[in-house]
UniProtKB/TrEMBL annotation:
It comes from Streptomyces aurantiacus JA 4570. This is Putative 3-hydroxybutyryl-CoA dehydrogenase. The record marks 166 as: Important for catalytic activity. Residues 31-209 form the 3-hydroxyacyl-CoA dehydrogenase NAD binding domain. Pathway: Lipid metabolism; butanoate metabolism.
Length: 349
């Protein structure tokens, strides 16, 4: 395994270059990825291709059953699109990832990435469980789209070792990660995290902690508003996306972006923003909620605002009922060209 690359020139200037306190000193520890969905598999691929040993945890047997094939497909695809090849061969990368339903298998993890669904109670519970299951020195990085890092850090006895790493989708093809420094995140945690990202060939842009950070505070409103435009009959999804592509030069329109992210994740993220800010602009519009209720989750189900050839690189779409997503019903508990899911042919729904 290669350890995190530690070239200070790859970091943000203000970051102290001190010895990372969290990496296993013998270089024998594993990196945990929790949640083997769209982001978890993509991030596991980045880690495995850079030579890290990965333990991927998902409570859903069905998610785990399809995960190795999705990882293989992801590596093939990245090989076609990426400029630089991974550090290790495909077979080696596939062997580097262990799949499990048990968080206890993270007992030797020095770094854990949370890629579980975007629901506050679910992630809060997960962070309490991770705190018990992982070594005290392990860093926890959340890939959350919008939940303030400090809210998750507060669930642990190691708030200084919790940070946000908002990877973009598809993770293997995106070079930049929005890194969220919580109010308690230490310099050493930030340094370790940026070092690991550099080892994956990625750079971090560090921002402060706030609901939705920079990216999704803006993007979620845009997707919601674009969906409202369709709902009100101003334009169909193809026309909406063409405006952004052909008039503004965007690589993808907001509705195709929503389809790539997953409309269930969009609705979940809007509810997180609504709960955390109280700002009614984040109330998901009827059109978005209806598509999710109908199981039209975007690329991962083969249909969202647009239609796609086949659901690829994902588990069979399975979304909890909308009632479970609303903040009040949770008692305990972004993008570029879409290439990974098999083409861009689209029929307006
Ligand atoms: N999809 C995107 O484009 C994107 C981009 C950036 C960040 N994110 C964020 O990444 C996270 C994961 O999103 P995704 O799109 O990969 O979701 P997904 O629905 O594709 O995958 C989530 C996975 O988590 C598993 N899971 C369910 N309950 C769990 C639990 N208690 N513990 C661990 N795993 C559990 C599910 O079985 C599923 O396999 C979310 O926080 C999301 O907001 C998503």
């Amino acid at each position: 395994m290669t350890g995190p690359h530690r070239d200070p020139s790859d970091r943000n200037d203000h970051v102290k270059t001190e010895t990372p306190m969290h990496q296993d000193s013998a270089g024998t520890g594993v990196i945990g990825v929790v949640g083997a969905g769209t982001m978890g598999i993509g991030i596991a691929q980045c880690l495995a291709e850079a030579g890290h040993r990965v333990v991927a945890v998902d409570p859903e047997e069905t998610a785990l059953a399809g995960a190795p094939a999705r990882l293989r497909a992801g590596i093939r695809l990245a090989t076609m699109f990426r400029k630089a090849p991974g550090t290790v061969a495909m077979d080696q990368a596939l062997e580097a990832v262990t799949w499990t339903t048990r968080l206890d298998d993270l007992a030797s993890a020095w770094f854990v990435l949370d890629c579980a669904p975007e629901r506050i109670p679910l992630k809060e519970k997960l962070f309490r469980e991770l705190d018990d299951a992982c070594p005290p020195r392990a860093v926890f990085a959340t890939v959350t789209s919008a939940i303030p890092v400090n809210r998750l850090a507060a669930q642990t006895r190691r708030p200084g070792q919790v940070i946000g790493t908002h990877f973009m989708n598809p993770a293997p093809l995106k070079d930049t990660v929005e890194v969220i420094r919580g109010p308690q995140t230490t310099d050493a945690t930030l340094d370790t995290t940026l070092g690991l990202l550099a080892d994956l060939g990625k750079k971090g842009i560090v921002v402060a902690d706030a609901p939705g950070f920079v990216s999704n505070r803006v993007l979620m409103l845009t997707v919601n508003e674009a969906a409202t435009v369709v709902q009100q009959g101003t334009a169909d999804p193809v026309a909406v996306d063409r405006i952004f592509q052909e008039c503004f030069g965007h690589t993808m329109g907001p509705l195709a972006t929503g389809d790539l992210i997953g409309l269930d994740t969009i609705v979940d993220t809007l509810y997180v923003l609504l709960e955390c800010t109280g700002d009614q602009r984040f109330q998901p519009c009827e059109k978005l909620r209806q598509l999710v209720a109908d199981g039209h989750l975007g690329r991962k189900s083969g249909q969202g605002f647009h239609r796609y050839p086949a659901p690829v690189n994902t588990v069979e779409a399975k979304a909890p009922p909308l009632d479970e997503r609303r903040p009040s019903a949770q008692p305990e508990k972004a993008t570029e060209k879409a290439t990974e899911n098999g083409g861009t042919s689209r029929d307006t729904v």
